[in-house]
Amino acid sequence: MPSPLRLHPDRLLPAEPGLRAIARELYAAVRELPILSPHGHVPAQLLVDDEPFRDPAALFVTPDHYVTRLLHADGVSLADLGVGRGPLTEPAARAVWRVLCERWPLFRGTPVRFWLDTELADIFGVTERPSAQNADALYDRVAERLAGADYRPRALFERFGIAFLATTDDPADDLAAHAALASDPTWTARVAPTFRPDRYLEPDRADWCKAVDHLGEVAGIETGDYAGYIAALEARRRYFVEHGAVSADHGHDDAVAEPLDARDAERIYRSAYAGQVTAAEALAFRRHMVVEMARMSCDDGLVMTLHPGSSRNHHAPSFHAYGPDTGSDIPRRTEYTTALRPLLERYGTHPGLHLVLFTLDETVWSRELAPLAGFYPSVYVGAPWWFLDAPDAITRFREAVTETAGFSRTSGFVDDTRAFCSIPARHDMARRLDAAYLARLVGEHRLDLDEALETAVDLVDGQPRRVFRL
Fold first, then answer.
1. Domain 153-467 belongs to what topology?
2. What pTM value is reported for the model?
3. Most buried residue among 241, 297, 393, 438 by CB atoms closer than 10 A?
């Protein structure tokens, strides 16, 4: 007999009855509010094409490194999960789905389990907990739903209540998909591109020269010298703004922003363009360009988000076989206070800059990020990201940041996901956890209920609008 899959209405709310009653009231105030997703990785083309999702494995398993990494840790090869194999045949997709169901207990206690339970139950009406015994039956049920018009991307987007969705895009992208959505009279939501220039700022990458040449081509500006390179980046940023972008995202190894004088920047650029840059020069140039990106944000208004601190592609054989974003990125310690001081001394009080700082190192929440956001009007603490977007970590985030920086110096929730169907589950989790935290403050007589209600709504709606200038 299969075990039932039930979503308790009070999941993630406090166990103590008095606090739970307060949390229920707070959660009820935000449960149905529209979703604002100012940073993520769902492609706009998915919504333009509006094609049915291919199969349950392609929706739930293969593209989601949150899922594949833990299955890989249990001894399943990434190839057997369909990673890097392109569209799967029906038997192959079914085999991938069986792996997920057979190893369902691996996800106990993880946020992935919360999201998958919510997706299966709320979106697809699944009432049985996945297992080896019911894997094929569940596959058939989900596949049947995916074949219907109500489960195409646009229909689900509307059902999820998404009002704003940001994608992540290469600066040389023509943004045709975004333009198509913007000009479609049947499309009412806002889907905005995000300027992600990392590959153009790191001259020790093997494809850097080719990339900056292409950037110059699409910008219509010669990038053979440093001045042209800067002008091309500025032109592409303007192009993104014209197509609705609100932010520029940066994900480098560290948070260091250290300006070079103009002669050194020009000299290193010439060396890089000639293919003769040293590792030290490339690092110095990238750190200089982070400062330049802040300057440009002051000019064009793009919110600057910084996501440092990931040791990317930790397992080189997996990277070479399957590509990036397949689960082998590992968090590491990151320093912000000294690293960002040159940038903040120049632009930290500039009215044009909004700088959202994310971290994978939770030790800096109270020690560095909250104090920085508690002084500099440009700085906001980004929501728990990636390995920290989990119930206990989100609660620790609120406890660590709020006492120094309050609620107004945080970003609002950011789902940062490639897994389309997990978006409402992730936002629901954050709303429940914030309701639980605020209920505790009310229960301890640190906030009145009306203040907690106002704050709960503001964290979902007002704060992301202000921070990301929506």
1. TIM Barrel (3.20.20)
2. 0.97
3. 438
Question: Tokens standing for 179?
Answer: 């333009």
pLDDT of residue 325 exceeding 90, the answer is: no
Q: Looking at the predicted structure, is the pLDDT value of residue 110 above 90?
A: yes
Token pair recorded at residue 94: 């079914």
Q: Is residue 447 within 8 Å of 441, Cβ to Cβ?
A: yes
CA distance 150 to 426: 21
Mean pLDDT of 435-447: 98
The pLDDT of residue 99 is above 90? yes
Q: How remote is the C-alpha of 334 from its chain's centroid?
A: 18
What does the alpha-carbon distance between residue 221 and residue 55 come to, in Å, rounded to a whole number?
44
The total of other beta-carbon atoms located within 10 Å of residue 85's CB is 15
* Helix spans in 279-422 (H): 279-300, 316-322, 337-347, 364, 370-373, 391-405
Where are the alpha helices (H) located in 128-261, listed in sequence order?
A: 135-146, 153-160, 176-182, 198-201, 208-219, 226-242
**Residue 438 pLDDT > 90, yes or no?**
yes
CB atoms within 10 A of CB 418: 16
pLDDT tens digits along 272-318: 999 999 999 999 999 999 999 999 999 999 999 999 999 999 999 99
Closest CA to 117 of 104, 98, 135: 104
Residue 2, pLDDT > 90, answer no
d(Cα 142, Cα 238) in Å, to the nearest integer?
42
Distance CA 47, CA 56 (A): 18
pLDDT at 429: 98
Whole-number pLDDT of residue 353 = 98
- Quote the CA–CA distance of 414 and 21 in Å, as a whole number: 27
Q: Where are the domains of the chain?
A: 53-151, 153-467
Residue type, 325: D
Q: Which CATH number fits domain 53-151: 1.10.3720.10, 1.10.1060.10, 3.40.190.290, 1.10.2020.10?
A: 1.10.2020.10
What average pLDDT does this structure show over 349-372? 98
Separation of alpha carbons 420 and 35, rounded Å: 13
Pairs from 8-14 (Cβ < 8 Å, separation ≥ 24): 11/114, 11/432, 12/114, 12/391, 12/429, 12/432, 12/433, 12/436, 13/432, 13/435, 13/436, 13/439, 14/436, 14/439, 14/440
- What percent of the chain clears pLDDT 70, i.e. is strictly above it? 100
pLDDT of residue 229: 98
Cβ neighbours around 224 below 10 Å, total: 14
Contacts of 341 (CB under 8 A, 6+ apart): none
